[in-house]
Each structure stands twice: as structure tokens, then as C-alpha cells.
């Protein structure tokens, strides 16, 4: 299945049905359907290589030849035709290899020709065992080859990128990879070069296949010509056990297939979910799965003993944590991070309220500006996101009349959202607009129009959109999580939606954010959009939880929790996955953790929180436990256990044990129980929280020696999940500072720019961008550092956030000086 | 030229020099010499007529495409949709098939005939840009065309407000990069757009979505060059030449083992016997063995076809194709195996690689042919050749694959024993290659 359309259009389509006869069987299909696709519907499998339902037809391999004795007008084609390029005509008659000897001979002939130059290295080929060429040559080819000549050979393999390798002699030149790169990803970095039998896939010498989507070409290669450096020669398909799962690296909830062997995941492939990711996934979702295998994996509980953390048994560690938390009473802050499955997030939400008795819980780790803006975002999430169920969907994006993006880079931050928007642009000419300081790469590839915006000015631009942007009920306003950093912007986005009827979609970066919102991991929110401030909502939740009453005092947000911990207002912290450098000023986090009286950390891998914790409770990796994410659409994406481990502990299981120790039953221990209780809670039917009413600010003004910072995270950077993924990281985009020619000239910037604040300075290569708004400098929020491990985070060096001022100056190079 | 393009009644003289009439003139390629012969008068006439009348005139003349396929030119012009998009004329001057040699001499000798044809044709179907896609290797032709176009611009025949009559036309001479496949019209368009030349999927056809996605007419050099004479002479004059379903005259190129190789312009329907009589026949002391009526892509003929009228239908009925009227003549000293092998090496070299049958088939066929030529063929090789040809012909993406297997099929049909002899005896023993050479070096002179 690859067709994505609403049920409403399906009804309309029925009128456009065309009836044809294939091998004597009548079938009615929508107008414009390809013959090969119509044959699939009645179970006739025509062999093919170049054909792919999501790529434009090319007709290159000629494997799918059929006879068409009648085109529907009484006349037939004199020669066999490629069924992947011919669309159905009313009354058409088709004879496949099942009924036509000529079609069968044509197919066998092409198969033989495909094999004459193909090496017989199946026993050592990664594709052997799951190879369309191998399979179809068995089902549709001759047993013996008549070819006794010379095969073409090439040095093998060559790199198309650090990750994607090409064995040219295996290639059948079907052009799937080149068409994918050009059509789907919009990164036409591979092309067929040379001609005749020497034709081959090639790259431009200075531009390898460094695409965020390159791994898909490996999966759709119908032979073993394309392999990944990470998986090549690591396993045979028939030794692998496959488990369908869900990807965790963005908020799309892409279906994936996880293949493991003897307790170790060997690779991940895109699953086929036409409603969500179709058949594609990002390279991060495909290749980044070894993050739990390093030395930093926590394998046993740790308990602080003076200056050192020493291993402890589970009972000892639980007791220690319980003792510390009991002392703190309800003076505990809970930071969960944005990567948890919804069941675990629910566990934290309930633990905070029902066990600890506090609303000081927040999943967010955001670099709010110096004034903080967590309250507006919390109000926005409560009013417009939480408990709204399935809202805007991928299909809605595809069929939208227009899309406006604010605080959002579709490719770096949107994952599959980018592919779907690009598809809409290619297929239906979707009009899209991006509020940004310059048109980002991903937006350019979907034909978006730039709405030039100085960071910090988004609220004003949304309030008064430039002429030419017309939004209606079929339009979508995409709000990225970054928009929360701009005071008044979320308020303005909601107002714009109300004014135009355009629907709003909040698309965060992390997989667990929407789930955390639904679970109520916010200081103002109970599960499924129940406003904390609403007594009937509290009663409703308390009834299901079987507790007397819930704390009604609104909680602190993440930054406030940390500051309160530093100042002694909070005595203890319970921390899930939180990374200090995700905040504007990481020192606030570190100081908060260090000054808190007692810190319990639930982590899979040792982190900066571990170092500062009093009790460390190791939790399972995603592949070791079941759970579910809720993607940005509001769609539940459950995933099963992949690798069964005897003592895998989810966050939820640990929280239940802590609750036991504290003398309150959490009531849920397993994923299934949490799901059941969430279902029991159900949607909130009472009044929703009010929309935020935050005032818009004005952007900073600049004077030439400084600039307004624009920044977001790249798809591949120094993220902790990418540690150890050496090959993948080599395909990341270069970290450069982008600014306009005028801004650069004003600060005498040529090759390099030093960006500084009172906190520190960092040097980037400068890149002039034609459409960049003057007075703005764009930096990647994080980057892979070429100066050794640890990477580079703007927060660490500059402690500054998007929309704030940074000083900029050119690097003066002294001729002849040694670096 | 004035004589020929005035509406003279059809002369029984088998030679009808129209396009070639001025080739013998002193510096016939200069615009002044072309004008002295009456050149560009037809353009003036045409620009005074309604555009639709010109299209109708070409339809009435029954001119069929001179590039090989023989599609009626007027009908091609009539297919263009009226969708507001710009229309383009592309002249296919990528002549590069073995044996084909009519467009290059025409553009060398009288480039203005083509330029005038382009001006009239573009006006007729309302194109304001015309491109001449010339094979990249023929630098001398490219330079001559560029000069002719420059001259025509200076004289006001091209450019803005042509001849002061309010029509604009830009003509661009574009050099290809040396690929036979770019003679295929859609591959030509890709190449012209700056891509790698590979045939496009049809539909959409170029008439609907061609160059830059706009309606495009692609015509052969000779077809377009014929237009001025039709405008000057009228449809009746043109249809007075030739045969039914093959009206008018055409340039025939004779090459190979003939006394006087070259181009000769005669009405369609003339036979090879007549052409040989006019030009002086097979080389001294030899007899015709086989020949191609339309270049290497047309099935070969033998002496039994000497009296086959060379027009579209008669040649097709006899089992071949008129194609580009490239008559390659081979006498009895020629090994048909060797000739076919050379042709196949050409097709293997020129296969673009896009589709499997052509790419892999030519690779394989050449290997079998080479061993047959070397006398190392294996029992069953002829059947294998025929079977592979069957798997390639009609299965490939464009006509190149069909063309590649044509010489093999027809050669085996007529000379199967020569192929079977290749199971034991090298071709160079059966047909000593030195006897085959036309311009043999005297003994003892180093090659």
C-alpha cells in the first residue's frame, strides 16, 4: 500500500474507475493507474526492478514486459510493452507472462541479459537472501545462463558517501537510487554517468551523497550494489529476526523494522506505513541505534558514598532513593526530558502528583531567552495541543492549500514531515512559506517562499502577514518548538489560526514531547489536556487514581525548578533524560543539580546528571522494552520489545518501586497497565485551558559589531545518540555561520567569524547567504567539533539563545603566521 | 536555383537537383551567392501569407520526414497544442549513423537553404526560437552554420522584426557532445537542455511537452531545407515528383564499393540500378553483394533488390526501411560477418545504457560476433544470435536497440552460411581483408 488519500476523495475516485482485463480477469482501477499496479491488485506478480510505486516511472529495466493485444480501441501494440509505464485505458486487454508466451519470453530474455554482467557473488553479498534479482531470477529466469563471455568488472566498492558504498558490477542500472535522491529527497547528488555497459552511478567529485536520506537508496536497491559501511558483511538476512518498531529520533513516529541477531540489533530498515512515513526514514532513524553499547551504559544502580558513586543492588538503591525523597517530602522537582514513551511520561506525571504531591514537573529542556517564556508555551500546549487527539495529519499536510512554517526547519527538525511536504510540492505544487532569517535548505527544496523575519520578530510578523500569503481552512500553520522562545509568538500563531481558519500543527523535535504533553508532564497540566487549575479536572483525575486530592498549586517550569533547587527552595530532584547544554545557560542546570539536597537520576547512560546524582537507577534502552510514542499528529505509535533482557527496568517500573517504598501505590507498573489507565482517563470533556495572551516583543536592534542570533539544531550534530556513529557523523553538514554580505562587510568578516558574548567566544567558518536578513547571524545550536570529542554547543560557549544579541568580528589572519 | 524552384513541370530526367542545385557554385555557402540564386525569396513570400496557409501547404505537399521515420511533416506541425506555452523548432542535425551522409554536405555546401527553411517553418507554426542541434564532432559544419546564421541575422532574415514584417525569431546553433543517441529526438532534447542525452519516456510527446516542457517540433535538416522549395514551387510541383505516399525528391548518399561515391538528388522511387547507372556503377571488376537502403539500421538488401523502388512503402514491403537513404554498397570481397560485427561495435559503443536489452544485448552480441569472425564460433551460435536479437529487438526503450539487431537478423537471413563458416574458418581467410580495401596501398607501403 502506498496510496495516501482521505476516505472522502476515495468516494469521488470511484466514479473515475477504468475496467481492464488482465489474463482474462476483469479489474477496475482508478484512472491513471499503471498496468503493473492493476495486475498487483488481482494477485498477478509481474517481475520488475526499476519500478517503484513512490518513484516516477522510468521504464529502464524492461523486465515487466507484457503483451497488450488491445489498447481498448480494438488495436493492440505490435511489440510487448513495459507494464510500469503504461496507464490503463477502458477496455484494455493485457496478457502477462501467465497467459502470453511472448510476454514470458520477453521477461526471460531481459532477465538473462540482466544477469550476463552480474557477478555470482550472492554467497558473500549483503543482499543475498532478500534480493529481488535473486528471487526473480529464480521465479522468472532460466536455470542456466547461456552467457560464456567476459563480464565487466570494477574495483569494488567505491564510496558514494562515508556511509553508502557502491559495488558497480552488481548494479542493474535501474535508477531507483538516482530517482530517489532527485525526486524524494531533493538531493540530486548521485547520477548515472558514462554510457552503454559502462554506465554507472556516480557522484560529483566535490559533492558526495551527503543527504539526510541516503540510507533509503540502500533499502530500495533491488540488488546488492548499494550497501552501508555500518552493516556491510555484518550479517546474513536469513540469520536475522525482524521486529516492527517505531523510530525514536524525531516526532514523526516512523515505522521501522528492527533486525537483530543473537541479542544484538544489526540494522534498522524503513517500515511501510503509507499514513506516516510511506517507505522512507531518515539516516538518523536508520543508522543511529548503537547508543546504548558504549562504556557509558549504566548496568547497575549506583549510590553516592561521599564523593564516589558505588554500585549497589536494586533494593539498596531503591531504599536510598526512598529515604532521600521521604526527607524532601513534597519539595521535589521532576524533570523528565522529551524522549520518554508516553507510558513512562505518565508514570512521572502520576508519581509527581499522587506520590510526591507536587506540580513541579516539566518535560521541557529549552533555551528560553533571558526573560524565560515557559509559561506562554505551557499555556499554549494546554490550550491547543494537549488532549486534542489526532489533529493535522501527514495526509492533511499533503493536501493542504498552503503551509506556513514558523520556528521550524522542515528537514533538520521535521524528519518525515519534510519528505511529505516536498512530495506535496512536487505532486500538487503546494505553496509554502517560512518565517525565518533566510530560506533554509529544507524549505528551499520544498519550494517555500521566505518571509524574512528577524528572530524575535515572529509574533509581529504573524500578527501582520505580508501580502500574498493566503490561508484558509485547508491551510496549515506549522509551529516548531522553537517558536516558544519568542514572547507572544505562540499567542500570535493561535490568533492567526483563529482569524484565517487555518489549522495549527505543533511539531516538536523529540519523539516523546507530544506524549509528555498528553501525560501531563507540565506544571499546569494533568493528563489529556485537563487543566490543573480546574477543580473538576483534578477531581476527575483523582477519582481514576484513587487518591484523595491532587496538589492544586501550579508548579514551576524546568528552569524555575533548577533555580529553586540551587536556592534551597526545592530539596530534591528526580531527573529523567536531561542534558544541561539543551538549556540557554547550562550552568543553571549544573548548579541546580549540585545544590539540590538530593538527586535521583533515572538514566540508561551515564551523563552529567549521573555525576551529580545521589542515587542512579539504570533504565532499559528502548529496544529492551515496549511502549509507545505519540507523534506530532497525535497518533499513537506503539512498539514492542525487540531484545528480551531478564531484568530490563523501564522508568515506569522504577517509579512504581519508589512509590512502593514511599508507601503509596503508583497503581501502574507495566506498559500495558499504564495504557489501560490512560484509556480509562480518556479525553477531557470539560472546559479547555484558555489560550495564552502574551504580549509580543520587538527584535533587538544591532549596530554592526553585533547581530541577532538565529539558531536551530541540525539533523546530525553532536547529539548523544550519535556518539560512536562514526560513519553517520561523517555525512553531517558542515557547521558554518551564515550571514548576509552586508552584515559580514560591516564587521570585516571574510573567511571566519568570531562570535562572542560575555560568557565566551567561538569561531566559525563564515558563509554568505544571499537572502539572509541583515543584522542576523545563523549558527548551528550544536555541531560536531573537529577539535576532538565533546562537540560544540552554543549554550556552553555563549549561554545565549535565538533572538539575543551576539558580538561578531572577522578573524584577522597574519600572513605567514603558523596556525 | 531560380530554375528549379520556379514551378516547372516534372521532368522525366531522373536527376532533380533542388537542394543540391547550388552545391557546385563558387562559395555557395555565402549569403550573397545564395541570394543570387533566388534564395530567401521564399521567406519573403511566406511571411506575407497567413501562418495556417503555410502549414496547409506543407500538408498538401505530402512531404514526409527525411530523417528516416517518414512521418508527414505537415501533420507533425499540426499536433502542437494551443496552450499558451512558447513553441520551439529543433532541427535534428545529429547525423551520425554509419553510412548516413546527406545533412552534413548539405549544411557545408548550402547552409542558407536550412536557415531559410528554419525561418519559414518557425513562422508557419509560430515558434520564436529555433535550435539547430549539430553533431559535435563536425566542427567545420558547426562553424559554417554559425557563420550562415550570423549572415542571416545581419541581412535581417532572422532576429527581431524579420524583414521588417513584424515577426521575431532567434536561431541558436548548438553543438552536441558526440553521442549517436542524441539523434533520438527526446535524447536530443535532454542534451539540448544541458542534461545527459538519454531518451525520455513517451508520452508526453515532444509536440506536447518537448524542449523545456513546451510544444516542440523536431525535424530533420533535409525536411526543413525542403520547405523553401515547396513555398516557391507549390504543392503541385512537389507532388509531381516521386511516387504515391512518397512525394518529392530526396538526397541519396552512395558509399562503399562504387566508382563515384557521393550525394545524388533524385525523386523518391528511384531504384539502386538507376542510381548506379547514373553514377558509374560498382567499382571496376566487382559485383554487388549486399547493400543498405537506409544506413546500418536498415535491414540489408542484396542484388535481388536492385530494382526495388526506393520510396518508403516499396522498401518496407521488400523488408527494409528507406531510412536516411544511405546506400552503403558492398561487393563480393566483403565478409558480411565482418561488416555486421563493425556495425555492432558501433551500436555497443553508442548504446546509452538506459535500458537493459540494448545495453547488455549489444555487449553480448559483439562478443559472439567477434568469435565468429575469428573462426572460433561455437555450434549453435547463429541460433543464439537470433534468439538474443529477438530478446533485444522490440524490447528496448528506444529504437537504438531495434536498430542494433537489424543488421544481424537480415545478414543471417541472406548469408547464414557465412556465419556458420565462422565456426571453423576466420572471416579474413574466407574474404581476405586487403581485397576489400577501396583505396588499397601499393604493396610495400607502410599503412
Automatic annotation (TrEMBL), chain A:
| Pfam families on file | Fer2_4 (PF13510), Fer4_NDSU1 (PF22151), Fer4_Nqo3 (PF22117), Molybdopterin (PF00384), NADH-G_4Fe-4S_3 (PF10588)
**Database matches in InterPro entries:** 2Fe-2S_ferredoxin-like_sf (IPR036010), 2Fe-2S_ferredoxin-type (IPR001041), Asp_de-COase-like_dom_sf (IPR009010), Mopterin_OxRdtase (IPR006656), Mopterin_OxRdtase_4Fe-4S_dom (IPR006963), NADH_UbQ_OxRdtase_75kDa_su_CS (IPR000283), NADH_UbQ_OxRdtase_ferredoxin (IPR054351), NADH_UbQ_OxRdtase_Gsu (IPR010228)
Q: Which residues form the 2Fe-2S ferredoxin-type domain?
A: 16-100
Q: Which reactions is this enzyme annotated as catalysing?
A: a quinone + NADH + 5 H(+)(in) = a quinol + NAD(+) + 4 H(+)(out)
UniProt entry keywords in alphabetical sequence: 2Fe-2S, 4Fe-4S, Iron, Iron-sulfur, Metal-binding, NAD, Quinone, Translocase
Q: Cite a GO CC annotation.
A: membrane
Which EC numbers does the record give? Answer: 7.1.1.-
Write the protein's name. NADH-quinone oxidoreductase
* Species this chain originates from: Microlunatus endophyticus
From TrEMBL, chain B:
Domain NADH-ubiquinone oxidoreductase 51kDa subunit iron-sulphur binding, residue spans: 337-382
> Which InterPro entries does the record match to this protein?
ComplexI_51kDa_subunit, NADH-UbQ_OxRdtase_51kDa_CS, NADH-UbQ_OxRdtase_suF, Nuo51_FMN-bd, Nuo51_FMN-bd_sf, Nuop51_4Fe4S-bd, Nuop51_4Fe4S-bd_sf, Soluble_ligand-bd
Q: Name one Pfam family in it.
A: SLBB
Q: Which Gene3D superfamilies match?
A: 3.10.20.600, 6.10.250.1450, NADH-ubiquinone oxidoreductase 51kDa subunit, NADH-ubiquinone oxidoreductase 51kDa subunit, iron-sulphur binding domain
| EC top class named in words | translocase
Its BP terms in the Gene Ontology are: cellular respiration
- Cofactor(s) the protein requires to work: FMN; [4Fe-4S] cluster
Which keywords, in A-to-Z order, does the entry hold?
4Fe-4S, Flavoprotein, FMN, Iron, Iron-sulfur, Metal-binding, NAD, Quinone, Translocase
EC numbers for this chain: 7.1.1.-
Q: Which GO terms describe its molecular function?
A: 4 iron, 4 sulfur cluster binding; FMN binding; metal ion binding; NAD binding; NADH dehydrogenase (ubiquinone) activity; NADH dehydrogenase activity; quinone binding
Record keyword NAD present? yes
Q: SUPFAM superfamilies, per this entry?
A: Nqo1 FMN-binding domain-like (SSF142019), Nqo1 middle domain-like (SSF142984), Nqo1C-terminal domain-like (SSF140490)
Q: Which reaction does it catalyse?
A: a quinone + NADH + 5 H(+)(in) = a quinol + NAD(+) + 4 H(+)(out)
Family, similarity comment: Belongs to the complex I 51 kDa subunit family.
Functionally, this protein is described as follows: NDH-1 shuttles electrons from NADH, via FMN and iron-sulfur (Fe-S) centers, to quinones in the respiratory chain.
- Could you tell me what this protein is called? NADH-quinone oxidoreductase subunit F
Organism of derivation: Microlunatus endophyticus
